[in-house]
Amino acid sequence: MRPPDLVKRPVKPKKSDQDRLAEALKTRAQRPDAPAHYTLADVAAVQALCRGEATDYQQKRVVEWLLYCAAGVHEHHFYPSDRETAFSLGRKFVGDQFQKASKIDLALLRRNEDGGSE
Fold first, then answer.
1. CB-side exposure of 20: number of CA atoms within 13 Å?
2. CA angle, 77 then 83 then 86, to 5°
């Protein structure tokens, strides 16, 4: 029988949400048209949301992934190429619209007869 190791091996820490977002930003900084970075947990959360079965945590994770990884609302959006800049700003526009809809005052919309698209 082998004796137990006296030296503890370091445990590889799980990636935090901050680490995950930093990795996504690194990829996007190189190419704005690169696909959004995602993890198994991100995809599972998106699929659960689409089925209508997402937990509160999964719903928040999808929103975070959509805004910060897929749309890149807090990224640098200007590149040497006009095409890359336009692509990046298009992504950001979708995220900005989603953020706006999540924070808009519903009472103001109810008063507006046409549904309040601004």
1. 18
2. 45
Written as one letter, the residue type at 98 is F
94's enclosing H/E stretch is helix 82-103
| Predicted confidence (pLDDT) per residue in 64-96, tens digit | 999 999 999 988 888 889 999 999 999 999 999
What is the CA 61 to chain-centroid distance, rounded?
Answer: 8
pLDDT value at residue 14: 59
Residue 15 token pair = 């990636």
Reduce the DSSP state of residue 1 to 3 states and report it.
Answer: coil
Contact by Cβ (8 Å): 28, 74: no
CB–CB of 48/58 below 8 Å? yes
The string over 80-90, giving b where at least 16 C-beta atoms fall within 10 Å of a residue's C-beta and e elsewhere, is eeeeeeebbee
In 3D space, the residue among 25, 22, 47 whose CA is nearest the CA of residue 34 turns out to be 25
